[in-house]
Amino acid sequence: MSVSKHVVSLLLENESGALSRVAGLFSMRGYNIESLTVAPTHDPTLSRATIVTSGDDRTIEQITKQLNKLVDVVRLVDLTEAAHVAHEMMMIKVRASGVQRDEIQRLSVIYKGKIVDVTESTFIIELTGNSDKLDAFIKSVGDEQILEVVRSGVTGIARGERGLKV
Amino acid sequence: MELSGGEILIQSLQDEGVEYVFGYPGGAVLHIYDAIFRQQQVKHILVRHEQGATHMADGYSRATGKPGVVLVTSGPGATNAITGIATAHLDSIPLVVITGQVTSKYIGTDAFQEVDAIGCTRPCVKHNFMVKSADEIASVMKKAFYVATTGRPGPVVVDIPKDFTAPHIKIPYEYPTEVSMRSYAPVSGGHVGQVRKAVELLAQAKQPMIYTGGGVLMSESHHELRKLAQELGYPVTSTLMGLGAYPASDKQFVGMLGMHGTYEANLGMHNCDVLLAVGVRFDDRVTGEIEHFCPNAKIIHVDIDPTSIAKNIGVDIPIVGDLKVVLTRMLELLAQDSRRANPEDIARWWTQIEEWKSVKSLAYEASDSVIKPQYVVEKVWEVTKGEAYVTSDVGQHQMWAAQYYKFDEPRRWINSGGLGTMGFGLPAALGVKLAYPESEVVCITGEASIQMCLQELSTAMQYGLPVKVVNLNNRYLGMVRQWQEFQYEGRYSNSYVDALPDFVKLAESYNHVGMKIEKPGDVEGALKEAFAMKEKLVFMDFITDDTENVYPMIEAGKGHHEMRMHPKVGELS
Ligand SMILES: Cc1cc2nc3c(=O)[nH]c(=O)nc-3n(C[C@H](O)[C@H](O)[C@H](O)COP(=O)(O)OP(=O)(O)OC[C@H]3O[C@@H](n4cnc5c(N)ncnc54)[C@H](O)[C@@H]3O)c2cc1C
Ligand SMILES: Cc1ncc(C[n+]2csc(CCOP(=O)(O)OP(=O)(O)O)c2C)c(N)n1
Ligand SMILES: [Mg+2]
Question: In whole angstroms, what is the distance from residue A130 CA to residue A136 CA?
Answer without folding.
Answer: 10
